[in-house]
Specification:
This protein is of the alpha/beta class. The protein has 3 domains: 3-264, no CATH class; 274-449, no CATH class; 461-497, no CATH class. Helix content is 38%, strand content 18%. The protein is built from 14 helices and 16 strands. It has a 5-stranded mixed beta sheet with strand order 1-2-3-4-7, with helices on both faces. A 5-stranded mixed beta sheet has the order 15-14-13-12-16, with helices on both faces. A 4-stranded mixed beta sheet has the order 6-5-8-11, covered by helices on one side. A hairpin with an 8-residue loop joins β12 and β13. The radius of gyration is 26 Å and the shape is globular.
């Protein structure tokens, strides 16, 4: 056991903080989210309620659960609640940001300042700061007075507490702050439950709401539904409008109810069902994290938690749709291999930036100690990573995941990372010898799988086989297929038949 890898984590002090931690652990995973961060000033001052650090992203959470007053004067009650729940949180977030940027090495997981923050923070010139306030206890009153879901309205022209149950401008010179309430916190961290999907929304939303045009929305969840509806030219979710909204003085989105319509749609239901298998990828990351943090890994080929984090970060960068593809690719492969045979599958990256994944299965031998089996399996996994670089010279990050052949439920996993950026002639010769040795021993029988189109929202139609007695010619081949797929006939059912 490696004692130096053990990292204790706070569960939070209040019920609200514990709940926030639970949501963030599920969405961002426990390697990257930490509750109760302190600095070393005086006896240790709390910097923020929760901090997420992932690559160059820093997400600062301030969580306040202040009872909403009930004097009968709505404007007065709002101003009092706003001051405690939002204004005070904004001050904490801005203060936390200053400390994190100026003193990144003086962050601790405990008030006695004996446990340093375990992950290296990005330099100030690389850091992307996301400021978030979680303000509880206003949703019920908001729903009572304004109706609807109880989420706070958004009006970019409003300053501070000027309009009850409405979030507007903060100090623009200090940076944009996102405000989530009891209604929208769950929705956002449920739908955007990977770090990639979450920060993509925060960045696009900030750009959208900080333009000169005044933008009015019924609530955060309604904005989210607009964001998820369309893709920009880079195939990223974005806020897209036919007209040039920069020429408008005010843009009233009239979006109330759009989230309910989206969440009840057949497309969303199909997505939720298809995504179920993707949470295997989350489990895999958390399982490796648990063993690394507790020092119970069979092997640790990296010196400390910071290097382990770098490897797991590559797995966690995958968004929800790609996790679905990878999980399907893993289990489809494992299920097809004979329990007494070894096999491997290589997932070829779509571009040079994507990791190459090797899935390896090795049958457990009964005539050798289990420790020896794990040692051999890990060595074979490393060899496959090296050979992958030989076969695919453009590969930069190569990740190997191994398990038992014939696995159906519980089992063990090995994780190997190979940094293929530096590749010498000696490395190439060694890889060629490894490949030759494995072929001679009949231990190299790889499957290769390129990226395929994985639809975020799975198609609801089933291709209809259209029997044709004559070949389609000319303009007919380019007409939309009658099955309703939206594809040209020559690319769809005519190709199937």
């Amino acid at each position: 056991m490696n004692e130096h890898l053990k990292i204790p984590r706070s569960e939070g002090v209040t019920d609200a903080e514990r709940y926030l931690k639970k949501l963030c652990d599920r969405s961002f995973l426990s390697m990257w989210s930490y509750t109760g961060i302190f600095n070393d000033r005086g006896t240790g001052q709390e910097v923020c309620d929760l901090l997420v650090v992932f690559d160059n992203h820093i997400i600062i959470f301030s969580d306040k659960d202040c009872e909403f007053p009930n004097t009968g004067n709505t404007e007065l009650d709002w101003k009092r609640w706003y001051k405690k729940a939002i204004k005070k949180s904004a001050d904490q977030v801005y203060g936390a940001e200053r400390w994190i940027i100026n003193y990144p090495s003086r962050l601790f997981l405990d008030q006695t300042c004996k446990i340093p923050f375990p992950i290296d923070l990005p330099s100030s010139d690389r850091a992307k700061i996301h400021r978030i306030i979680v303000a509880h206890s206003a949703s019920a009153k908001c729903a009572e007075i304004l109706g609807g879901s109880g989420s706070l309205m958004i009006n970019t022209e409003v300053v501070g507490d000027a309009q009850p149950f409405t979030i507007g401008k903060f100090d623009s010179s200090k940076g944009y702050i996102h405000v989530f309430d009891d209604t929208t916190l769950d929705i956002l961290l449920d739908k955007l439950d990977t770090i990639s999907d979450f920060v993509a929304y925060l960045e696009k939303k900030e750009i959208f709401l900080t333009r000169k045009t005044t933008i009015i929305s019924a609530g955060e969840e309604e904005l989210l539904s607009l964001h998820l509806k369309d893709l920009n030219k880079d195939d990223e979710h974005d806020f897209i409008f036919k007209e040039d909204i920069n020429n408008l003085t005010v843009l009233f989105l009239n979006d109330e109810g759009s989230w309910i319509n989206f969440s009840k749609s057949s497309e969303r239901k199909a997505q939720v069902e298809a995504n179920k298998i993707s949470y295997f990828w989350d489990w895999l990351i958390e399982n490796f994290t648990k063993h690394f943090r507790e020092g119970t890994s069979y092997y640790n080929n990296h010196e400390d938690i910071k290097n382990q984090e770098m490897v797991l970060r590559l797995l966690a960068k995958e968004n929800r749709t790609r996790r679905r593809f990878l999980s399907n690719a893993f289990w489809e492969f494992v299920d097809t291999i004979n329990p007494v045979l070894k096999g491997s599958r290589t997932i070829i990256g779509e571009n040079d930036k994507d990791p190459y994944y090797i899935f390896l299965v090795v049958p457990e031998t009964k005539d050798a100690p289990y420790e020896k089996y794990r040692e051999v399996r890990r060595g074979m996994l490393h060899a496959h990573c090296v050979i992958t670089k030989l076969n695919f010279p453009n590969a930069k990050d190569i990740i190997g995941i191994a398990t038992e052949s014939g696995r159906k439920g519980d089992g063990s996993e090995d994780l190997v990372y190979y940094d293929a950026r530096i590749w010498t002639d000696k490395d190439k010769r060694n890889a060629e010898k490894l490949k030759s040795d494995l072929i001679r021993a009949k231990l190299l029988n790889p499957q290769y799988r390129s990226e395929k189109t994985e639809y975020e929202y799975p198609p609801l139609y089933q291709p209809i086989e259209i029997k044709q007695t004559t070949q389609l010619k000319g303009k007919h081949k380019n007409k939309p297929c009658r099955c309703g797929s939206g594809k040209k006939t020559k690319k769809c059912c005519s190709a199937i038949s």
